[in-house]
Amino acid sequence: MVLIQILLPRTDAASPMADGAFVRTRAELVEKFSGATAYLRSPAIGVWTSPEGEREQDEVVMVEVVTERFDRTWWKGYAQQLAERFAQEAIHVRALHIEILDEDAV
Predict the structure, then answer these.
(1) How many Cα atoms within 13 Å fall on the side-chain side of residue 1?
(2) Cα–Cα dist 60/62, whole Å
(3) What are the chain's domains?
(4) What is the pTM of this model?
(5) CA atoms within 13 A on the CB side of 91
(6) Cβ atoms < 10 Å from Cβ of 72
(7) 16, 27, 47, 71: which could form a disulfide with 22 (CB 3.0–4.6 Å)?
(8) pLDDT in tens, 46-73
(9) pLDDT (tens digit, 9 = 90+) per residue, 27-46?
(10) What's the CA gap between 4 and 57, in Å, rounded?
């Protein structure tokens, strides 16, 4: 099994659930993977140095899906779609091979 984690910018400080881009993304992931988990209560603070040397920061939320295999081509394309949707240069997607202990839960 593969756990896929997506870091999305928190564009609506009040609630990501009020953000149309987030709601659309969640619906797409649920449709494709039969479920998704979004960690919304405590957004993470992302900090990095831009190519120009400036310190950048934003709030992000993590969305996870579990699937049987990682389709790198599909995810690269979807990450590009998300970058456009959320007006970002890139969207961070990572895939982790996992073992599900309760096989009936999948």
Answers:
(1) 14
(2) 7
(3) 2-105 (3.30.70.120)
(4) 0.83
(5) 25
(6) 10
(7) 16
(8) 888 888 999 988 888 999 999 999 999 9
(9) 999 999 999 999 887 778 88
(10) 23
Neighbours of 78 (CB within 10 A): 19
Note whether 35 and 105 are within 8 A (CB): no
Which pair of structure tokens corresponds to residue 88? Answer: 């970002």
| Residue 25, both tokens | 């993304």
Report residue 105 as tokens.
Answer: 């839960």
**Distance in angstroms (rounded) separating the CA atoms of residues 87 and 80:** 10
How is residue 90 written in tokens?
């890139």
Distance CA 46, CA 48 (A): 7
Q: Cα(49)–Cα(35) distance, rounded to whole angstroms?
A: 34
Dihedral sign, CA of 64, 26, 49, 72?
A: positive
Q: What is d(CA 34, CA 55) in angstroms, rounded to the nearest whole number?
A: 38
Question: Could you tell me how many residues make up the chain?
Answer: 106
Exposure on the CB side of residue 77, measured as CA atoms within 13 A = 4
